[in-house]
Structures are given as C-alpha cells and as structure tokens.
Amino acid sequence: MNLTTEQKQTFFDQGFVKLPNAVPEQLVHKALHAINASLGSEGMDPARLVTFRTQSYCPEVQRTAAITDLMTASPLWSLAESAIGANTIQPVQSGQIALRFPTAGLDKVGGPHLDGMYSPDNGVQKGRIQNFTALVGIFLSDIPQPFMGNFTVWPGTHHLYEQYFREHTPQSLLQGLPAIQLPEPQQITGKAGDAVLVHYQLAHAIAANTSPFIRYGIFFRLSHINHDEIHWECMTDIWREWAGMRDITSAARRA
Predict the structure, then answer these.
(1) How far, in Å, CA of 2 to CA of 218, rounded?
(2) pLDDT over threshold 80, residue 8
(3) 185 within domain boundaries
(4) Which Gene3D superfamilies match (predicted)?
C-alpha cells in the first residue's frame, strides 16, 4: 500500500498525515491484550512513573510481536516505505507504549518539543540530539474529541525549523527548542486502528486527558538506513531521507 499523491502533498505541507484504518482490528486487540495483561500482572511502580511517561509504559512487552506487528505486519510499513523509500528503513525493534491517564485540572496542551533532546528522565544522553526520520503514532483507543490525551501537532513547523537550523546550525538545538513564532496547535482525533505519519522535525506535544478514559497509543521512531551518517544534514535538508517524496519536493522547488 502506498501513500496517495494527495496524502504526500498534505505530509509535505503540514508535516503529518493521518492514515485512517491503517492497522487491522486483530492487531489492535493483540496489542491491547498484551498491554492490559502487563498492567494486571506487573502493575506500575510509583517510583518509575516519570520514566514510564517519558520513555514507555509496560517495558517488558515493548519488544514483543504484539507491539512490533502493529508496524511491521500492517500496511503501515509499506506506507512508510512509499514515502521514505523501499528497503531504506532500519529494522524496528520496539515501540513506545504511550498511555495517558485521566487527570484533573484545566484543559491544556503541553509545550511543543522535538524528540531526541535530553531531559533527566527520557534516556537521551546529555550533549546529544537523537533525531530520526519519521514518527509513526497508532491509536489503540478511540479519541473522538480534544483533551482526551490527544497527540498534538503544530502544522508546518518542520519547514520553520529547517529554515532556523540553516541559519543557526542544527547543533543550536542542544541549547533548547528555538523560540520561533508558532501556528495554532492541532489536536489529532481518530479511532482505534488509525495512525499518523509525522516528520521528525514537526513540533508536537500531548494534550491533557480530562475524559474518563485511558488513551492507548503506540509510537515508532523510524530511521533511514543511512541516518547515522547524515543526521545533522537532515535537519537543514528535511527531505534528504525521503526518496518517495521526490515528486512532491521537485514540484515545490519549481513552483
């Protein structure tokens, strides 16, 4: 399965594209079973909650087929390859199990960020930027409205950060997220089995969950097979790793 030209154009313009019904129901249920079984048997150590929130819940099942099949045994893999390039994505070993529990308080959206920046609890080494090519998020529960722990994006910011890093170098990200004028954030809604393909360099965050339901999601971080050698260059040339997007990027340069 391939992205359509319309989907690629949306991805180019906005930095993300929603993929309805991308994951079959049986794979969604298999993943939910593994997560809920883990919660029921392993529980959650309160002392590790910060790590769970920033890295992954249920780490003992992150690398199981119940989780990785969501990416590798569903149409998502071919959809991602249609944008990045066939046989150019590094193997996927695990997924981030991202749960968002109901919280009290006002409706709000967390501050925007780019992944791979150091914080005390996220596992990234200080002094490094662990960027990658694409983020793929999969909904395992319905999110029909805002403030249900929605994955939230600032559309178009991948272009804004590309320009900033061209002027200030990619290494400037080590000093913190650039202070640039941002558009309005968009909370993504969807149904279980929907997914979203996101460019690495798109600002994103999580909205508060003021609903009575747990938000279940899985995130995969995909890297091009040559990413380690060109990871800085990709921040000033954001389509360098996207062979499947060349028809769209070429048309944009001619416009």
Answers:
(1) 21
(2) yes
(3) yes
(4) q2cbj1_9rhob like domain
